[in-house]
Write a structure and sequence with these properties.
By secondary structure, this protein is an alpha/beta fold. It is built from twelve helices and 17 strands. It starts with 6 loop residues before the first strand and ends with a helix.
């Protein structure tokens, strides 16, 4: 297939990765770590995946000021203008607007794929085919395409997309021939519902998980911002191509903090969801990492480290790849064992909602020790 010469990819890499403590922390969040045990960080894997359909010179990374140097180290082939450092965290709507404004100066006819930097994708060829289909669809229609993954459990850490039956989408898709049966009109977006609601969503058969990937042309993107987030549109789309750091800091200091889901997707009437044919996980929690990892015959997922297990099952192990140190585990069932440079976590998988408390206690102890 001929490559779309106006296709751009925006990769959002500004998250702080707090749910993967202690391996991930504000100094080195999840996107900059080899969480999957592949030898590459999540960000590097995302760039490599999209470089199959989008040249690296049309990939833009948006990250925080504190992480810009780390992105440059991981992706030395990118030009300086391709790494956009946000002075403040303002959620995804300003992040995307900032990247779109930079792209607009270089290619006003751009088609833009927006993606998180820290999600896991399986069956890569199917992923590329789905992205190509979404790109081809928005070329013919003034639509916003989002990708939805078929839910396998009532997970409360994911967003959900409610869709209409495919016949509605097919009838409204004017154009050549039969309409694909994997494209649906979006009814609602729901972010991280309570467990009972998630169970009802799954039972209804009318919901996808929100994969957080959006595909739109630059004119459609800009119109959506002007309609639903006019203050952000007025600010970012009037930035010059050589905006100073001081100007950018001023923009962000006065900018509303809002997600693109809440600000645009929940209100727009031209949003469609493409049912993903690839495997997907946002790898938001240790337990979700365990679910998508390869298990041994005892149900253990040992991703990193020199690890020996005895009478241990259903346990996730993520240790530093230091071949001079051995890790021996005995008698565990259903645990998370994870280590950073200075902290070892041993916690029941079912209790990982306590991580915030654990991390706070550890940080408090460090502060006390410094006094």
């Amino acid at each position: 297939m001929t490559q779309n010469k106006h296709l751009w990819c925006v990769i959002m890499a500004g998250g702080i990765g707090s749910r993967f403590w202690p391996v991930s922390n504000p100094d080195c969040p999840k996107q900059f770590i080899d969480v999957m045990g592949t030898g590459n960080t999540m960000l590097q894997m995302t760039v490599e995946r999209f470089s199959r359909i989008c040249p690296k010179e049309r990939i833009v990374i948006v990250t925080g000021d504190a992480y810009a140097d780390r992105v440059r180290e991981l992706l030395p082939d990118l030009e300086s203008w391709q790494i956009l450092a946000e002075p403040l965290r303002r959620n995804t709507a300003p992040c995307i607007a900032y990247a779109a404004s930079v792209i607009a100066h270089r290619d006003p006819n751009a088609t833009i794929v927006v993606t998180p930097s820290d999600h896991a994708v399986f069956r890569r060829e199917r992923f590329l085919a789905d992205i190509r289909q979404a790109v081809a669809t928005v070329a013919d229609h003034d639509w916003i395409i989002t990708l939805g993954a078929l839910p396998t459990r009532p997970d409360t850490s994911y967003g959900y997309i409610q869709f209409r039956e495919p016949s509605t989408s097919r009838q409204k898709h004017a154009g050549a021939g039969e309409q694909p049966d994997n494209l649906f009109e979006v009814v609602t977006f729901t972010e991280k519902p309570p467990l009972e609601m998630a169970r009802n969503f799954i039972a209804s058969g009318e919901f996808f998980w929100n994969a957080g990937i959006f595909v739109w042309t630059l004119p459609v993107l800009r119109k959506a911002y002007e309609t639903y987030l006019p203050a952000i549109a007025d600010t970012f789309f009037n930035l010059s191509s050589d905006t100073s750091r001081e100007e950018l800091e001023n923009v962000y200091s006065h900018c509303e903090a809002i997600s693109v889901d809440n600000g645009i997707m929940e209100h727009a009437s031209n949003v469609h969801v493409l049912a993903a044919s690839f495997g997907w996980s946002d790898v938001e929690t240790w337990d979700s990492l365990y679910e998508v990892s390869r298990h041994d015959r005892n149900g253990n997922a040992v991703l990193c480290g020199n690890v020996f297990t005895y009478d241990t099952k259903n346990t996730l192990v993520v240790m530093p790849n230091d071949r001079t140190k051995n890790v021996v585990l005995e008698g565990l069932d259903g645990y998370i064992v994870a280590a950073s440079r200075d902290t070892l976590l041993v916690c029941r998988r079912k209790n990982e909602d306590q991580l915030f408390r654990f991390a706070s206690d550890v940080e408090l102890k460090k502060l006390i020790d410094k006094k």
